[in-house]
Design a protein that fits this description.
The complex is a heterodimer of chains A (291) and B (344). Chain A is of the alpha/beta class and 291 residues long. Chain A has helices spanning 16-29, 46-50, 52-69, 78-93, 95-106, 121-129, 131-137, 159-162, 172-179, 203-219, 230-238, 240-247, 258-265; strands spanning 2-6, 32-35, 73-75, 118-120, 146-149, 183-184, 224-227, 255-257. The chains are: A alpha/beta (291), B alpha+beta (344).
Chain lengths: 291, 344
């Protein structure tokens, strides 16, 4: 099974452990990943507002790079995923803009015709690997590990893209956690916002919002949080010390990237999955990897 | 004779070829109107908890309400007021999704009472982020004052062209979605940044939609729009789409109102968008975002206030200052520079 692979900027810098873990897990799952070396940033949230044409061009270029390889595109970041899905939709809905973008891309010898399937790693597990196959591959079920699934926003909202009347009804992460042997817990932060997108100019919003979510996960018995988004991970993990300071309370909540949780159940070691690169110690969950 | 499918049953019974991973949970969660209408039948009893208050600590009162066909949240409230709690305070007027006065929170989600199907178990609360006057009635004053501050009206830059005004549907496309607003405050209640109170100067989704109705109108004077936008704190929107999710008028609030207003702010009040321009410059020169470079550009020396944290991040390899200061020319950087242009 082959995919063009788009890790995004975060997994190539502050969350490099996510990139490493994804490659390791992909190898175990039989996913062959072709990196798109010339791919740029998708523009985060900023570019789409202040430069819609630039935004469309960069994203369609990424889709064109995947199309040139004749491969579907796998992402591991919520915001990149939504940006690419939105750009693809604009490309299809606005033929005039689509033509204009293709003219700009032709200087690179690239062109897009709307063929690239965009899929986040979470969806690839369900749609391409298949849950039954995944279950067979679990060699070290994480029995008893209580997990709080933190979806973030851009993998379950807006409703115009994912069709949820109430995004809290999403159960993709919990169902997956069960397949890995974990016990998912319910808490108020599941599909709430981490505040990452305004954190570069003002961290206080992210700190206040995410503090409530981690606290709720903890109160409801979670031993770890798992997230499909490196941007959420950055706030949940890298900001946790500041969050504790703000709440005047110890939280000590380990936060795993989704491929890391999958990798642990597939028998990969915490070292291979680079759990040592996290800011919050993850050793407390290693006792669940006994069997 | 053409046989009819029973009500509520989809005609196409073929199972989907593959799992649609993006929608897992929609069927168990009764996540469509059709599905929710199948959950109850005549003879069922609803368990309804209503949060009540009158200048005192809020209390929750429980009611058993007999289900009626096509019952809405408003019908349940009416039944409670007529049969159990004549002093229950709640607002409604049109009963048909027009006036925007009956919004409440049902099971943690903002809904119009007049439009939402009842659920077997419901907790009904007043909207958040506005003071409660009594029971389910909130004071819209803070919203009204914010909207007034934003001066949501049109001041023409050019003289009136006379009737009929030369305006096409294309000209009005920008403001068109915002004009669907019924002012129900669902989005204002759902917004997590507004939930943090005075922490930021963010005006919030509902006031921004009101502003969008005129600020995205081509007849409005840019000087007037600039004055309004400067008071919005619009770049504090975290892009969580909570507002879009609950909007009963189905306005794409983030993509069709907030983002176009941000674009206007970037053009008219560039200082407000400094962070966005910094990000654009970094992508244009490096092809990708280097988080350290972004934080240094946006925060300047402020970024160094928290030295222990910088050290912690360095220790774990979360930041790589060599990479930050040595800009490598990559194919991505070359492409981004060509497509986005140079630094502003």
């Amino acid at each position: 099974m082959k995919f063009a692979y788009y890790p995004g900027c975060s997994a190539r810098s502050t969350c490099a452990e996510l990139n490493e873990a994804t490659h390791e897990v992909a190898a175990r799952l039989g996913l062959e990943l072709t990196p798109l070396e010339a791919a740029t940033c998708t523009g985060a949230r900023e570019l789409r507002a202040i430069d819609p044409i630039g935004f469309l061009t960069l994203n369609v270029r990424i889709l064109a790079l995947a199309q040139r390889e004749d491969l579907p595109l796998m992402t591991i970041c919520n915001t990149c995923t939504l940006n690419l899905l939105d750009a693809h939709a604009t490309f299809v809905d606005e033929p005039e803009m689509a033509r204009e973008v293709n003219v700009r891309l032709s200087e690179d010898g690239l062109s897009y015709s709307g063929r690239t399937r965009i899929s986040h790693f979470l969806w690839v597990l369900y749609e391409d690997i298949g849950i039954d196959r995944l279950r067979q591959l679990v060699v070290r079920p994480l029995n008893g590990l209580t997990v709080a699934a933190f979806y973030g926003c851009h993998i379950t909202r807006p409703p115009g893209r994912y069709n949820f009347v109430d995004s809290r009804n999403n159960v993709a992460l919990e169902r997956l956690a069960e397949v890995l042997g974990c016990r998912p817990i319910d808490y108020s932060g599941r599909t709430e916002c981490c505040g990452f997108h305004t954190a570069a100019h003002d961290e206080r919003v992210a700190i206040k919002l995410t503090g409530q979510h981690i606290k709720s996960a903890r109160t409801n018995g979670a031993r770890t949080i798992v997230t499909p988004c490196p941007l959420c991970h950055t706030v949940l993990d890298s900001f946790q010390r500041e969050i504790e300071k703000d709440m005047n309370e110890k939280l000590d909540m380990p936060v795993l990237h989704l491929p890391q949780l999958v990798g642990l159940a597939l028998g990969l070691s915490p070292e291979t999955l680079r759990l040592d690169r996290h800011m919050v110690e993850t050793r407390t969950i290693e006792s669940f990897m006994g069997s | 004779v053409v046989s009819e499918a029973p009500a509520g049953e989809p005609l196409d019974r073929t199972p989907p070829a593959t799992v649609d991973a993006r929608r897992l949970g929609q069927s168990e969660g009764y996540d469509t109107l059709a599905a929710r209408n199948t959950r109850l039948a005549i003879g069922d009893t609803l368990s309804v908890r209503v949060r009540r208050s009158e200048g005192s600590e809020p209390r929750v009162e429980q009611f058993q309400v007999p289900y009626q066909k096509w019952m809405r949240v408003l019908d349940a409230l009416n039944w409670i007021a007529e049969n159990r709690a004549p002093d229950l305070a709640y607002r409604w007027f049109c009963g048909s999704k027009m006036c925007g006065t009956c919004a409440v929170r049902m099971n943690g989600r903002e809904v119009l009472a007049c439009w939402e199907a009842v659920e077997p178990d419901m907790t009904i609360e007043p909207l958040r982020n506005l003071p409660v006057i009594r029971d389910l009635v909130v004071d819209r004053g803070p919203f009204d004052r914010k909207v007034a501050e934003l001066e949501p009206w049109i001041e023409r830059a050019a003289p009136y062209a006379g009737f009929p005004e030369p305006l096409s549907h294309r000209d009005m496309r920008g403001a068109s979605k915002a004009l669907d607003c019924i002012g129900c405050m669902c989005c204002y209640s759902a917004c997590p940044v507004i939930g943090l109170g005075d922490l930021t100067d963010f005006a919030g989704p509902a006031p921004l939609v009101q502003l969008g109705q005129t600020a995205l109108d081509p007849r409005n004077d840019p000087a007037k729009i600039e004055r309004s936008l400067a008071r919005t704190g619009i770049f504090n929107c975290v892009s969580c789409y909570k507002c879009e999710e609950v909007c009963p008028a189905a306005i794409p609030i983030v993509t069709r109102v907030i983002e176009p207003l941000k674009a206007k702010a970037a053009a008219l009040v560039p200082a407000m968008a400094a962070h966005s321009f910094a990000l654009r410059d970094i992508v244009a020169t490096r092809g990708r975002i280097d988080p350290s470079a972004l934080v240094l550009r946006v925060q300047g020396l402020r970024a160094l206030r928290n030295i222990p944290r910088v050290l912690r991040l360095l220790l774990r390899g979360k930041i790589d200052l060599i990479k930050t200061f040595l800009k490598r020319t990559t194919p991505a950087a070359v492409a981004a520079r060509r497509l986005l242009g140079g630094r502003r």
